[in-house]
């Protein structure tokens, strides 16, 4: 029965109101028209019955309190999660609301998520495709409008499953544009503000045939001299040389339809000037205004330039820049007239400058000064996962970025690229190894001379990959042509062996001293009390990366061993997998795929540009009393210690270490994930390999295939049982592991390391393959490091992941931690282990070597500063990695003793 009908809708099992919470109310029009229309369609198909979601919402709207608790929760699938600016008092920080589209298999409805549940979205527990149970909802009217209201989801249960949402899902191109609550007229992208999102953003406006009367035109130089004495200006004919990312400047107290702006640098024969695209013109024109596009502008405005705007570095250093004024394109006052002139209609006599670039090769990079502007092209060999960085403390606004490596054949070292979102989501989300990557207006970062140089995007950077190169002005550049010639001489079957995707990436490394790390900030404002780490982790949002500094004492180190293929299964266990036959592509077919990819990549410089839709298809110890060296041991957790029993992860019978080495069976494996007494997921590695007293008094029994080495200080042995708080955050997750790139399954790998989409991807477009089936690109294990607080009352376990890729030794820069003796030893020993493994000498290096123990002993009992990298991976998964250790006796840092 549809909304507004006179009879009470028939209740369906699983969607009944609790007694006393419902009741018959006044009959009112349904203020959510898209829900009503879907209801009517479903009613016709089912003989007059409304679908289940609609019946529930009808009951809520008719209840006396406009609220209901469902006695039997209703199972639905989340189809979409969409974000928009929340209303707030003036000067309040920006906060956001979320609308959900739910489907029950017969129809769909949009609902507002109660703000107190926003954390479910912000930590990616509630995301498109998940199944939820609706337990409580309410109805809210907009008191400033007639017949306008929305359903508010007050209570949800997450069942952990995924749904297809095939039936009743809104078709493509028919998604609503306007949010349910407040005065907003558009949705924002789910994870940042810089990207265009939704159908309101016009993909491309076709060029038009325009008769250009040169006699009626003015030029930029004349404008700069006469703009103060004029109100109306003659038309302008200009070419776009640079394009900025979008800027969203929406504020809660201001009612604006589309609060966006974008800067362009345009030029004619007289020079270059800034042009600003404002508000509602951004969705209409931003995609169509590309670098190199020729524009005919009329009825524009001229204003003084914004003094704090960034400026790109022009490719032509001789070009004159008019920096005092800027061209403003508005939807009104006056309404600007914009025409795009097809390139084939552009005449040489118009005198429009060509787009010029400042391409460099990798061999030239190390000689360039800090903040130098340049353009680069290279073959991608590594691309990291998409991560976010908070713009301001306690803000809900984030920068979106990822790291990438690219080679150009002029150096053994790659370009290391920090790529922030450039308002090109179709490109940013499809960067993968083995594609040709072009990045413009990059800035050289050499703040730390002792560290590796890298490049970062600027406000005017643009990035391009396969499918976007054709027609770009840079295809005429000599260095671009040289790169293409070099690639034609390369075997991509050899190059793909060196490629890696995703995982934890510790770059940029902290500087070589803590004072440099603090920069101009007071030390007290940089250091975090170790007891606040729990709060820091709790406040993290999905894929938010945060780096913090804490004081502590290195008290214990344990090596957690695993083979290259030992990964975590969905149930939480870390098991051994053989993926050599499971990837669905033999070595021959993989090479075929790569060769086809190479042909397509080169052709992308020659063929037509693709549309965005195409992208969718140590020394011996001298004092035994001061340091204890643990020997390898095996154990099984008793069922009564944590409530679970652990089964062996290896089918091999137990052999001694020597025998296992001879038999080649010493492939290290992760432990199991279990629940501690507080219900927190921790790994078996938290249970130390101990002597008779045992660190946690766990009765140990043998577990085949499990080996470990550990060290602990006497101080730790004395205080570990008297701690007020002990945080366990040394577990690593499948998303933490860099993977060998598989070209056949590049779409799945890109999906894994991108952020969750705002709209559910149909099942038929997905590949049922687990990320654990892809081979790890790094070493045999990782280290669990226990950091004791300097007041000896709080401790935390963190992970140190040695990053060494034998197929590409330049991927992770081991030399960047050379001033950190302990972590340097851990990395180098692990690298030696992997080399030994590859040469068939697995086990020649003991996991906790004498060098590591010696380095740990040098820090025994001393106060150090630990730099920790934290990242929220979604759901309840948070990784915490140790990145750097500073001694407090270094120059400029007071020794606390």
Mean pLDDT: 78
- The number of distinct β-strands equals 34
Note the main sheet. Answer: 8 strands, mixed
Structural class: alpha+beta
Helix content: 10-25%
Kindly describe this structure.
- By secondary structure, the protein is an alpha+beta fold.
- 16% of the residues lie in helices and 27% in strands.
- It contains 18 helices and 34 strands.
- Strands 6, 7, 8, 9, 10, 11, 12 and 13 form an 8-stranded mixed β-sheet that branches. Strands 22, 25, 28, 29, 31, 32, 33 and 34 form an 8-stranded mixed β-sheet that branches. A 5-stranded mixed beta barrel has the order 1-2-3-5-4.
- Helix 17 (821-838) runs antiparallel to helix 18 (850-858).
Summarize the entry for a quick read.
By secondary structure, this protein is α+β, with helices and mostly antiparallel strands.
How is the topology of this model organized?
Blueprint: H1 33-45, H2 52-62, E1 67-85, E2 96-103, E3 108-113, H3 118-122, E4 130-141, E5 149-162, H4 220-226, E6 236-243, E7 247-248, E8 260-268, E9 271-278, H5 281-285, E10 294-298, E11 301-304, E12 321-329, E13 337-341, H6 362-365, E14 373-383, E15 387-390, E16 398-407, E17 415-420, H7 425-428, E18 436-445, E19 454-457, E20 463-464, H8 478-488, H9 492-495, E21 500-501, H10 514-518, H11 523-526, H12 533-538, E22 545-561, E23 566-568, E24 574-576, H13 587-603, E25 627-629, H14 657-663, E26 673-675, E27 681-683, E28 708-713, H15 714-719, E29 725-729, E30 739-740, H16 746-753, E31 781-788, E32 794-800, H17 821-838, H18 850-858, E33 864-874, E34 877-887
Helix pairs in contact: 17-18
């Amino acid at each position: 029965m549809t909304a507004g009908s006179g009879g009470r809708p028939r209740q369906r099992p699983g969607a009944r109101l609790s007694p006393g919470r419902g009741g018959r109310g006044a009959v009112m029009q349904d203020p959510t028209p898209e829900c009503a229309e879907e209801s009517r369609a479903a009613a016709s198909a089912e003989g007059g019955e409304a679908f289940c979601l609609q019946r529930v919402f009808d009951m809520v709207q008719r209840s006396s309190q406009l609220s209901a608790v469902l006695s039997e929760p209703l199972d639905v699938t989340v189809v979409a999660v969409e974000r928009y600016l929340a209303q707030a008092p003036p000067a309040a920080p920006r906060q956001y609301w979320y609308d959900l589209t739910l489907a029950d298999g017969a129809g769909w409805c949009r609902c507002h998520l109660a703000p107190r549940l926003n954390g479910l979205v912000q930590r990616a527990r509630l995301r498109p495709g998940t199944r939820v149970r609706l337990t409580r909802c309410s109805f809210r009217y907009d008191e400033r409008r007639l017949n306008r209201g929305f359903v508010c989801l007050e209570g949800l249960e997450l069942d952990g499953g995924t749904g297809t949402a095939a039936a009743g899902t809104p078709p493509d191109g028919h998604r609503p544009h306007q949010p349910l609550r407040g005065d907003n007229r558009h949705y924002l992208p789910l994870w940042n503000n810089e990207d265009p999102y939704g159908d309101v953003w016009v993909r491309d406006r076709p060029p038009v045939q325009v008769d250009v009367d040169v006699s009626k035109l003015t030029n930029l130089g004349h404008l700069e001299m006469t703009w103060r004495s004029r109100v109306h200006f003659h038309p302008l004919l200009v070419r776009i040389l640079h394009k900025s990312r979008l800027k969203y400047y929406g504020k809660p107290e201001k009612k604006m339809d589309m609060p966006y702006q974008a800067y362009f640098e345009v030029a004619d024969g007289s020079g270059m000037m800034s042009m600003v695209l404002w508000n509602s013109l951004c969705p209409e024109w931003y995609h169509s205004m590309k670098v190199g596009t020729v524009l005919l502008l009329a009825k524009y405005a001229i204003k003084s330039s914004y003094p704090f705007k960034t400026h790109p570095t022009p490719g032509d250093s001789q070009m004159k820049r008019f920096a005092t004024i800027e061209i403003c394109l508005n939807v009104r006052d006056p309404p600007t007239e914009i025409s795009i002139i097809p390139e084939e209609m552009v005449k040489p006599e118009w005198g429009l400058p060509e787009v010029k670039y400042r391409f460099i090769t990798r061999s030239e990079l190390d000689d360039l000064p800090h903040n130098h502007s340049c353009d680069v092209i290279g073959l991608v060999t590594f691309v990291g996962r998409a991560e976010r960085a908070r713009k301001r403390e306690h803000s809900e606004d984030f920068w979106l970025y990822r790291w990438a490596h690219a080679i150009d054949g002029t150096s053994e070292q790659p370009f290391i690229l920090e790529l922030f979102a450039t308002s090109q989501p179709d490109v940013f989300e499809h960067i993968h190894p083995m594609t040709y990557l072009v990045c413009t207006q990059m800035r050289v970062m050499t703040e730390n001379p002792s560290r590796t140089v890298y490049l970062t995007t600027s406000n005017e950077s643009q990035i391009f990959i396969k499918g976007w190169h054709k027609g770009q002005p840079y295809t005429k550049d000599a260095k671009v042509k040289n790169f293409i010639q070099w690639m034609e001489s390369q075997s991509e079957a050899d190059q793909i062996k060196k490629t890696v995707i995703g995982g934890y990436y510790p770059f940029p490394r902290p500087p070589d001293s803590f004072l440099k790390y603090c920069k101009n900030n007071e030390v007290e404002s940089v250091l975090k009390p170790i007891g606040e780490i729990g709060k820091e982790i709790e406040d993290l949002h999905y894929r938010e990366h945060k780096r913090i500094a804490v004081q502590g004492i290195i008290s214990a180190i344990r090596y957690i061993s695993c083979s290259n293929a030992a990964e975590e299964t969905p149930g939480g266990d870390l098991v051994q997998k053989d993926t050599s036959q499971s990837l669905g592509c033999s070595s021959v077919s993989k090479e075929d795929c790569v060769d086809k990819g190479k042909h397509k990549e080169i052709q992308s410089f020659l063929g037509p540009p693709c549309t965005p839709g195409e992208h969718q298809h140590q020394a011996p110890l001298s004092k035994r009393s001061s340091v204890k060296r643990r020997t390898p041991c095996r154990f099984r957790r008793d069922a009564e210690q944590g409530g679970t029993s652990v089964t062996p992860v290896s089918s091999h019978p137990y052999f001694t270490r020597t025998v296992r080495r001879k038999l080649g069976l010493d492939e290290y494996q992760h432990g199991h994930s279990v629940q501690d007494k507080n219900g927190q997921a921790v790994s078996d590695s938290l249970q130390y390999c101990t002597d008779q007293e045992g660190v946690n008094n766990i009765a140990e029994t043998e577990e085949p295939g499990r080996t470990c080495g550990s060290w602990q200080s006497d101080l730790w042995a004395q205080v570990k049982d008297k701690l007020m708080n002990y945080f366990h955050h040394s577990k690593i997750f499948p998303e933490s592991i860099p993977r060998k790139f598989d070209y056949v399954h590049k779409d799945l790998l890109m999906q894994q390391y991108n952020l969750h989409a705002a709209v559910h991807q149909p099942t038929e477009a997905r590949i049922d393959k687990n990320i654990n089936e892809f081979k790890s690109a790094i070493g045999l294990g990782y280290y669990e490091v226990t950091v004791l607080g300097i007041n000896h009352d709080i401790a935390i376990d963190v992970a140190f992941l040695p990053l060494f890729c034998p197929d590409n030794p330049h991927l992770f820069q081991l030399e960047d931690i050379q001033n950190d003796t302990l972590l340097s030893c851990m990395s180098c020993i692990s690298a030696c282990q992997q080399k030994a493994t590859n040469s068939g000498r697995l086990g020649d290096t003991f996991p906790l070597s004498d060098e590591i123990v010696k380095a740990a002993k040098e820090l025994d009992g001393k106060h150090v500063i630990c730099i920790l990298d934290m990242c929220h991976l979604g759901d309840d998964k948070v990784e915490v990695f140790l990145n750097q250790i500073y001694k407090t006796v270094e120059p400029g840092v007071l020794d606390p003793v």
